[in-house]
Amino acid sequence: MALYALGDLHLSFQADKSMEAFGDLWHHYVQKIDKYCGRLTADDTLVLTGDHSWGKNLAQCATDLKFIESFPGRKILLRGNHDMFWDAKKTQQLNDLFKDRLYFLQNNFFSYGPYALVGTKGYCYEGLDTFEHFEKIRDREVQRLQVSFDAAVAAGYDRFIMFLHYPPTSIGEFSSPFTEMAESYGVEHVVYSHCHGRERFGDSYIGEVNGIEYHLVSGDYLGF
Ligand SMILES: [Fe+2]
Ligand SMILES: [Fe+2]
Question: pLDDT tens digits, residue range 144-165?
């Protein structure tokens, strides 16, 4: 029984958007995902930290999600910025639709031994929107993360592993509402992805900071 995390599969079985064009880090990425995730066992847990599919809706993601379903073990999915199939207000409907096959993490939590796995998409400033808009989106994500923590605490959990799609801090930041929340709950690990390409791998924390281990699990960073 082990816990794994991997992000940003960017699958495109039904869309003509292969990531092979993005250089050597993406070479044979689908084959690698198939090979490495295929090694999981039935009692393993894999948290996929968002940007699962290029499909624009559930129908266009069907083959990608089937591929993810085919890996052994429990698959827990987080919402990435490209996951258009996932209406943020309808996470429970996804959990009902994929019951016992895939698990969608938002405004809820899942358990792993003594740990609560909490998480949300998160947000960091990338200069793509106004700062006011950034703050609005970020604050909504902070609220969702709070709901996740509240649900875990209400169920009696006091050990946490926290998952985000976006890096926990914006470039140049040393803290954020996400790192502050992680510290206030005594989170042991923060896991995130979203950063692609060698020039982006250092955007946020990797390793131990203020007692928390930060892990970047972007597929192209880990070699899938
Ligand atoms: Fe991505
Ligand atoms: Fe992303």
Answer: 999 999 999 999 999 999 999 9
